[in-house]
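User: My collaborator sent over this chain with a note saying "see what the structure looks like." That's all I know about it. Can you take a look?
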Amino acid sequence: MTRAGMVAVVGRPNVGKSTLVNALVGQKIAIVSDKPQTTRRDIRAVWTTDEVQVVFTDTPGFHKPRTLLGRRLNELVADAVDGVDLVLLVVDAAAGIGRGDAFVHARQIQTGGIPAICVVNKLDATGRVAMPVQLGAAQRLGEFQEIVPVSARSGDGIDILRRLIIERMPEGPFLYPTEDVTDQSTEHRITELIREQALRVTREEVPHSVAVIIDEMERVGDLHRIHASIVVERDSQKGILIGKGGETLKGIGSSARPEIERLLGTKAFLDIHVKVMKEWQRDPKALNRLGF
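Assistant: Without extra context I'll predict from the sequence alone. Here is the result:
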């Protein structure tokens, strides 16, 4: 008999949820950035063996929202937790466990009654003296079936965590075809790879304002021609992303292209422009147009 189940991965912004999901499934599904609120959709990553299939839902960082986009992202987290078999609450041992983590626990775990594991992440960046203190802080957050220290970046503790997750998956048929690794469309994965590189090169005032859309994509032989737009909220942000003589924008394209080619399995021609969509994070019509 096979096992299959759904696992929601939740936590405050920038605790390493996406890095953890990528480590658990053994490949890059979600983009990773040191900027908070990088994840903007409930991304499903599928890990399958002969006996078990685990569907991880990587969620946006749960936070106190300041925009309509922020409120919609929090709603995604609540939806992702509903009806799952297990919740992983990810906390950041290096930054310290505190009120933000307690807020997530109270809103997403305590009220739902779903079995939960607390994943104490960034073991590699936490001193030997600090880690026991943070494990104690994790224990005080509330009831967990397990508290597991890991480093999603280095892989320490991932095998143990994976085994504990498998033990909690119910018996039943697989939920996705065995060859599937995510429910994201190819086009969405491409927009995320471009956005990842835009986040890498921009300063503090830009990241939350960046979105990416595919304007056109076609395959000609073994070449994909992709025309994409990076959307920002202000003209000053557009200037930052383009850079002097277009150098910043060229760098974004150059860095994103190899990842896109690996995803597609072909060569890619990538043409990126920058568009201004005023205050799109607060505009319902703009959010709908951008897929939020």
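A starting point for your reply to your collaborator: The chain is about 35% helix and 25% strand.
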